[in-house]
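Support request, please re-run this one:
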Amino acid sequence: MKNNKAMLYKDQIDKNRIPAHIAIIMDGNGRWAKQQGHARTFGHQAGAETVHVIAEEAARLGVKYLTLYTFSTENWNRPVDEVAALMSLLMDSIEEETFMKNNISFRIIGETEKLPENVLARLNKCIERTSKNTGMCLTLALSYSSKWEITEAVKKIAREVKEGILTPEEITDQTIDRCLATHYMPDPDLLIRTGGEIRLSNYLLWQCAYAELYFCDTFWPDFKAEELCKAICDFQKRERRFGKTSEQI
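Re-run finished. Output below.
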């Protein structure tokens, strides 16, 4: 009989308990590049390749939704040349073949009007081309922040109250859910952050109220399929009570 410790994590996963929605904060590209003696943009290129690896593995495992924190609202404050390189990389790294081959649909959330026109056009083309795919939904959070998203949801609800569509007493957490950019997906079951930092960085704050959190020191370019499987194995060892006792589960 095989020793569990010697088994690959992918062989230990319970395929009947795969998290439906995994959200990832892809951190550590710049620090990884620095360790290699390269510019930060080299790390972002390597990180883009990891996105394809993780998307394919997640789809293979049966994950229904994968949401990746790609570019935050705050990232616009980075050096101009790095932002320009990131935008160029974003446009070049969207490979529709990967989505079509794996039956993945593609979406984006965030203040997309801030994106360069050519980048947005490329992204929208991919969204349209993959819209009929029925497998995993891969969402990139671009020019995104949770505070922006919640603020926009509040504005929408306020307009509905002003127009008489809704009364303040009728507002529930479901009302907020339907007004968020993520209204088409369930809340994350598992949130992964790579790169050694232990914070949420303004990412899916409302949606992650009951998500299981997994932090690892691995920089994103080194976070390959087996690392994803390791995170899912860790998730499967946890008891999700949602405020109840163990006996009530």
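The chain has two domains: 18-144+190-236, 145-180. The first helix runs from residue 9 to 12.
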